């Protein structure tokens, strides 16, 4: 028998979820069966998978040490030697304390690993924290609370412990987070407004579409937009998200008739070609500029990426106030 004491990184979650993290290679049905047979106990007594574990609780696992070790063997985390460009995002980060790491993600960097095998922000953050956090353990693996598309830049929140993860995710889920994006669109908008509709996703093409009425698989979307300045041809927009659907901003703005510059999936091919030839722009100009969770005391602003900043200047859209 081996006994585990619930600490601050493990408390306030369901027992079955705790066990899945403790023994990630064990089948969940098997673990539930072991709970029924009292081969796994909570505080010395019989427990239900839905029971909540609290700090100071004890979990007794009546398996051999070899069996437990087998269920705990994890695929080795990927290690990367960070390039100078990726190191810059940690020198310094937007914000960091003992509980939270906030990064200004550059366009082109994955938020988390995918089948491409390319380095992701998660990989880079693990390497950074391992080297820069005294006494750092792998009891809690760094995670992302607000994922951005590969080619979207800006604010990403990375909780360092389970209580912070719970608090941040709860605020996001309850729509308490203020999420403001800046983007440059083709066309001129003079007045603020609100866009609503229903979004559908074609998973085969990885492309979203907006429709005016609800339908099968459609999800309601809503966002506010506010023009910051324009040059008679392009507009710098501030977008406030109220729902966070896949490609929502890009697809809604295109549907409205104001595609984002550099958006090769939803944008204007001729305009994109001009910016690619002149600036080498190969990604959409969408930047998560401001992220705040008032109840948690979080309020973060991410500087513009260099190319975004250059285009603001060249297009005469730059204003010190922004």
TrEMBL record:
RNA-binding S4 domain span: 13-73
Tree of life domain: Bacteria
Upper classification of the organism: Bacteria, Bacillati, Bacillota, Clostridia, Eubacteriales
Swiss-Prot/TrEMBL GO biological process terms: enzyme-directed rRNA pseudouridine synthesis
Coiled coil location: none
Family classification: Belongs to the pseudouridine synthase RluA family.
Gene3D superfamilies found in the cross-reference section: Pseudouridine synthase (3.30.2350.10), RNA-binding S4 domain (3.10.290.10)
GO MF, any single term: RNA binding
Pfam families cross-referenced by the UniProt entry: PseudoU_synth_2 (PF00849), S4 (PF01479)
Catalytic activity: a uridine in RNA = a pseudouridine in RNA
Keywords: Isomerase, RNA-binding
Record's signal peptide: none
The protein's name in its UniProt record: RNA pseudouridylate synthase
Listed InterPro entries: PsdUridine_synth_cat_dom_sf, PsdUridine_synth_RsuA/RluA, RluA_PseudoU_synthase, S4_RNA-bd, S4_RNA-bd_sf
């Amino acid at each position: 028998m081996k006994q585990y004491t619930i600490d601050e990184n493990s408390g306030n979650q369901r027992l079955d979820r705790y066990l899945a993290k403790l023994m990630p290679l064990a089948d969940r049905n098997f673990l539930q069966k072991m709970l029924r047979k009292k081969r796994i106990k909570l505080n010395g007594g019989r427990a239900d998978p839905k029971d909540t574990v609290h700090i100071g609780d004890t979990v007794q696992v009546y398996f051999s040490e070899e069996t437990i070790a087998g269920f705990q063997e994890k695929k080795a985390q990927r290690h990367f030697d960070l390039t100078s460009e990726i190191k810059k995002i940690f020198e310094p980060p937007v914000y960091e304390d003992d509980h939270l790491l906030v990064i200004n993600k550059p366009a082109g960097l994955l938020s988390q690993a995918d089948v491409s095998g390319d380095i992701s922000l998660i990989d880079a953050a693990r390497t950074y924290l391992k080297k820069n956090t005294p006494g750092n353990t792998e009891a809690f693996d760094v995670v992302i609370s607000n994922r951005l598309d590969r080619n979207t830049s800006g604010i990403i929140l990375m909780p360092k412990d389970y209580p912070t993860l719970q608090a941040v995710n709860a605020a996001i889920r309850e729509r308490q987070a203020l999420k403001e994006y800046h983007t440059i669109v083709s066309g001129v908008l003079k007045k603020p407004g609100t866009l609503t509709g229903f979004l559908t996703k074609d998973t085969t093409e990885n492309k979203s579409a907006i429709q005016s009425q609800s339908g099968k698989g459609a999800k309601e979307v809503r966002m506010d937009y506010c023009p910051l300045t324009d040059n008679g041809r392009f507009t710098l927009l501030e977008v406030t998200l109220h729902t966070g659907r896949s490609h929502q901003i890009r697809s809604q703005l295109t549907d409205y008739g104001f595609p984002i510059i550099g958006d090769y999936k939803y944008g204007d091919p001729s305009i994109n070609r001009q910016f690619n030839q002149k600036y080498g722009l190969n990604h959409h100009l969408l930047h998560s500029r401001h992220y705040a969770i008032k109840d948690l005391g979080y309020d973060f602003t991410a500087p513009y990426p260099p190319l975004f900043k250059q285009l603001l200047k060249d297009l005469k859209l730059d204003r010190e106030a922004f």
